[in-house]
Amino acid sequence: MTGKASTGPIIYYREPDGKPFYSADPKKAADGRDYLPVRASEDVSFDDEPAPVSSAGVGPSAAGKRVLYYRNPMGLPDASPVPKKDSMGMDYIPVYEGEADDSTTVTIAPGKLQRTGVRSERVDRRILSEVVRAPGVVEEDERRISVISVRSDAFIEKVENVTTGDHVHKGQPLFRLYSPEISAAAAQYLSAVGYEGARRRLENLGVPNEVIAEIERTRKAPISIMWSAPRDGVIVERNIADGMRAPSGATLFRIVDHSAVWVLADIPEREIGKLREGQVATVLVRGFPERHFSGPITRIYPHLMATTRTARVRIELANPEGVLRPAMYADVEIATGSGAPVLSVPESAIIDSGTRQVVILDKGEGRFEPREVKVGTTGEGFVAIREGVAEGDQVVVAANFLIDAESNLKAALRAMAAPESPR
User: Could you give the CA distance from residue 349 to residue 368 in angstroms, rounded to a whole number?
Assistant: First the structure.
């Protein structure tokens, strides 16, 4: 028997074998066949095709249910108490007794469930971890920098065989100098007069403690003194030569301990709320792509960088081998989340209108109900749900927008006033 002719404009195209693939424009399947056009009168509802009803008005259906009214086939807020056609010639769709009792539940026949590709998954508790990624750069630890200078005018007699890039140890000799002011303070220190004041003067001139101890031991005021390294580290700056005059305050050496370094990363403003001090970050440097370094966030700086709208965070890394060098570029990854399991659903289950978020509950036997939810953090393809569903619920994760559209249509029709009597 020939079916009812399709009417109305073509609204989309479907896969020729009935698979749940659709296109807004003409398209070919993988085997070269054309997608089939679907007109406005075809498959615009999830309802099964109703049995013919009498045109005499609202009456019983073939299943014994009474027709309450007829709704617009295109979802417009328009209803009629009697059968009619819209402007494109499509029949209004009957709404039977019992169908309008629940304005949110949608019932779909098993055949249409398969054709539309509806698929559901269970609501479970999962540990969600979202990774924040940002660029960074390796920097020196400011607390591990020592500047060597003298606090009085002096003359450099001899510089030891150390230069930029050398690693030195605490107490290792660096240079010998002569300073008239230091020599005078040493002589006063050995006299009986002003002992305590003279010692304090030597300390104020920056004379190393081991030099003061040597003066006490030998009871002699040295003509020149040996200056040693105050810490272990690498010489990154040397501004000294044999015989030169060293003015007070001039930087002679700068030594940096690289056994620990900082990584400064610029985090986008929208991500900064996910971070806290103490979180562990993973750092990858481009010079050693096969290695991963990890360390805690020790500081989230209090000001944003106005030009980039980023906040700077500081990560401290141990660097015992010295492979991390200042000014190296780094890629920083920070896993966020509490580490505790939270109620969550796949991201595809969320229908986000911008003002609210909805999931479609699968109530079984082809019945579906939209449910508004409150969402939380996201991570690894899942979204935390703070309110709206319970563990064990089934939510639709594929073709859910079709059910949502049908539910919205049903709710709008139910909210309308009762249809006017025919004239």
Answer: 13
pTM for this one?
A: 0.58
Confidence of residue 266 (pLDDT cuts 50, 70, 90): very high
Contacts of 282 (CB under 8 A, 6+ apart): 292, 293, 294, 332, 333, 334, 335
Q: What is the pLDDT of residues 122-140, one digit of tens each?
A: 998 888 877 899 999 999 9
CA dihedral angle for residue 384, residue 355, residue 40, residue 367, rounded to 10 degrees: 40
Contact in structure between 314 and 301 (CB atoms under 8 Å): yes
* Class level of CATH domain 116-128+340-415: mainly beta
Under a CB-based contact definition with an 8 Å cutoff, are residues 149 and 252 in contact?
yes
What does the DSSP 8-state code read for residue 2? Answer: P
Cα torsion 219, 221, 222, 226 to 10°: value is: 80
What CATH class does 151-249 carry?
mainly beta
CATH 2.40.30.170, applies to 132-141+258-336: yes
Residue 415 belongs to what H/E stretch?
helix 400-415
